[in-house]
Specification:
The chain has eleven helices and nine strands. With 297 residues, the protein is α/β, with parallel strands linked by helices. Helix 3 packs parallel to helix 6 and helix 9 packs parallel to helix 11.
Length: 297
């Protein structure tokens, strides 16, 4: 078993610990604050998911940006940065630029990195750190931590309930039609759009797979043209009315586990990425062209 697969399997325990840690952490965004969440790559996609969850919880306007694209002239009450390594150049540059202008919170896995000094407050989720280059458990644990801090979100399970679903997602066999497909399109609405983006990225990073990701309601405005026999349309969260018929009509395979928490469903996509990588002879722990952290010279 690859190290990545081992780390994927630890997520239910990580999420439960994150929920407890969030309850005792004083630096999370407060209801009514105008908040921006930022990160790079996977961390940006988790930021997108959290921003939508926070607004769905009625806790205030929340934006998400890639750290390199943060709008310098926009005003916020708090900025939250997600960085597993604590060394990502764009994140550190942004936190440095914001120092003294707006309170900042960073989520990281490594307490011995520059982010500890760059942010005003830091939540260290070191129990979710990873050896693999490809992020899995840290990203979902960071989102679980932030999600737990929101309390009840209408229509969304608690983190503890999501962890129960995650246990099944770790062990349940992947459908043969999904494993044997040639192309995968991931869809989501609201907070699950961020998960769809992340699922596609995991497949590209680990397995070099042909994947695309879209808001679920945008799928029929063009992207459905890529769907057909041997190709998968995977929906995180609510299934738009009529979409199953549309996918069937063009010969695609639909994956939609609406009874499962979408964050737990992401684990299936992570497992699929590892399975495909291994079937191609790739090392999922050391993906091509990637490093653990992007540090610009």
């Amino acid at each position: 078993m690859s190290r990545t697969a081992e780390e994927i399997a630890t997520q239910p325990a990580c999420w439960r610990r994150a929920a407890k840690a969030a309850a005792a952490f004083p630096g999370l965004p407060q209801p009514g604050e105008r908040v921006a969440v930022t990160g790079c790559g996977t961390s940006w996609f988790m930021a997108i998911a959290y921003a939508a969850l926070r607004e769905a919880a009625g806790q205030g306007e929340t934006d998400a940006f890639a750290s390199s694209e943060f709008p310098a002239g926009r005003s916020y009450d708090r900025v939250v940065a997600i960085t597993r390594s604590g060394t990502t150049t764009e994140v550190l540059d942004l936190l440095t630029a914001l120092r003294g202008k707006v309170p900042t919170l960073a989520l990281t896995a490594d307490p011995k990195t520059p982010v500890m000094d760059a942010a005003d407050e830091v939540a260290v989720l070191d129990w979710a750190d990873e050896e693999s280059v490809v992020q899995t458990r840290f990203a979902t644990t960071a989102l679980a931590f932030l999600r737990a801090g929101l309390g009840d979100v209408p229509g969304v399970k608690s983190v503890t309930e999501a962890a129960v679903d995650a246990e099944l997602a770790i062990t349940e066999p992947l459908p043969e039609a999904v494993v044997g497909a040639e192309q995968w399109t991931f869809l989501g609405r609201g907070w699950t759009y961020g998960l769809a983006l992340e699922a596609g990225l995991k497949m590209r990073e680990a397995a070099g797979a042909w994947t695309e990701s879209y808001p679920a309601m945008e799928y029929r405005h063009g992207p459905i043209s890529i769907t057909g026999p041997g190709r998968v349309t995977w929906v995180f969260g609510p299934l738009p009315e009529g979409l199953p018929l549309d996918v069937s009509r063009v010969g695609g395979t639909l994956v939609a586990r609406q009874e499962t928490d979408p964050l737990a469903d992401l684990i299936r996509a992570q497992r699929l990425a590892v399975t495909l990588a291994e079937s191609k002879g790739f090392d999922p722990d050391r993906p091509r062209n990637l490093t653990r952290s992007v540090i610009l010279g």
